[in-house]
Amino acid sequence: MYGKIPDAELRRFYSLWRDMTVIYEEWSKAHGIGGSAVLVLHSLYYDRDGCTQRMICDRWLFPKQTVNTILKDFERRGLIEFSHLKSDRRNKLIHLTPEGEALAAAIIPELLELELHVMERMGAAGRAGLIDGMARFAAYFREGLPEKR
């Protein structure tokens, strides 16, 4: 116990965090794609001008190898294509192919629709509580991080 907070509350938080991860993974698998792959597809779907592997890694906090493996699979399946950046020939810009666009258009809007439906069911107070609580948790946690050297 820390102060007046029972350890059970923190364990419940961990359990719910894990449950959310499992639920997203199950949803993704039901749609024929892994949980990490659906997030990469999400980035490519919304960044229509293309994005780099580094941008995807930074957005989702994925290791470079994870994103690289997903991108190689997408390339093998004809879902993406690469082009060199004019400003930096070492980095490649990734775009969805028409096949990739079709897959993303069949999956990503459906996920968004489900998320919006869930948020609607929570009601305004529930949404505000969830978002405010998560924002405060992140801010307070950030305050407790050691200073960067």
UniProtKB/TrEMBL annotation:
One of its GO terms (molecular function) is DNA-binding transcription factor activity. GO terms for biological process: response to stress. Residues 1-139 form the HTH marR-type domain. Coiled coil: none annotated. SMART domains: HTH_MARR. PROSITE patterns: HTH_MARR_2. InterPro entries: HTH_MarR-typ (IPR000835), MarR/SlyA-like (IPR039422), WH-like_DNA-bd_sf (IPR036388), WH_DNA-bd_sf (IPR036390). Pfam families: MarR_2. It comes from the Bacteria. This is HTH marR-type domain-containing protein. The lineage of its organism: Bacteria, Thermotogati, Synergistota, Synergistia, Synergistales.
